[in-house]
Amino acid sequence: MERAAVDGVVWTAGQVARQLRIAESTLRAWHRRYGVGPHAARAGQYRRYTAEDIARLRRMRDLIDAGTLPSEAARAITAAISAAQALPQVLAAARELDNARCVDLLENVFADVGVVDLWERVCRPALTALDDGPCAEDGIDTEHVLSWAITAVLHRVSRPPTEQAAPVLLACAATEQHTLGLEALAAALAESRVPVRMLGAAVPMPSLVHAAAIAAPAAVVLWAQRPQTAQPDALRALRSFSSRRVIAGPGWPRRPLAGVDHVDSLSAAMTLLTS
Question: Which of 57, 95, 114, 180 shows a CA-CA span of 20 to 30 A to 240?
Fold first, then answer.
C-alpha cells in the first residue's frame, strides 16, 4: 500500500519514486518536459518534494495509467494548480477594485481550463466568498468589479454560427435581474459550439413564449436566483412547444416540476444540454 504523504515533511526524488512505484527517471522526465515537479525546486539544488507535490504526481500517474497521454495529464494537473492559485488573487484584485487585474487573472485561468472549470473553480467560489465572507470591507462595489470582470471574460468566448443547429434559449424569470449564471452557461455552450439565444434579465412570460415560437429552440433554460422569482407559470406556458424545459439557479426548488429538468451546476447543465 502507498504511504500517505505528511504535511511539512519533504522527500527526495528516490523516496517519491518508491512511494509512487515509478522510475526516478520518469519523475525527472515529467519535471523537464511538462513542468510537473517540486514547486520549490531551484537550479543546481537537489529536488525535494512536499505532500502537495506528491499528491499532484500521484494524480499524474493515475491519469496516465487510465490511458491519458502524459502531455494531456500534465495540462490537467497544471490547470488545477493555476485555478487554485488564482482564486485568492482574484478576490484580492476585486477588493482593490482592480478591474484589469481581475480580467487578466480570469483570462489566464480560462486559457488553461475553459469556461466550466473557470466558473466552478474560480468565479462561483469568489462570488460566494464576497457574499458570505467575514470581511467588512466587501461591499456592492467589490462584487460589481468582480461581476464585470467575469462578464468581460465570458463575452470573449467566440460564438458559433447561428444557423448551425437549433439553439438553446436562455432567459431569467420575469422578475429576476441576476444574469451572471446564464452568462456562464451561454459562454460554455458557445465554447462547445452550441448556438445560443440570450434574452437576459427579467423576461416577461409573453416575451418568453414569443421568443420560443420564433427561435424554435432545442431547449429553454429559465434562471431564478431567488425563490421569490422562481415562478413556474412561464414553464407551464411553454408546454405546447417541443423544446426541452430546464430550470437553473439556486432559486428553484430542488424537486423538478413535472416534465421539467433541473440542473444545479454549470457542469450538470452542460451534460444535459450537449447530450
Answer: 180
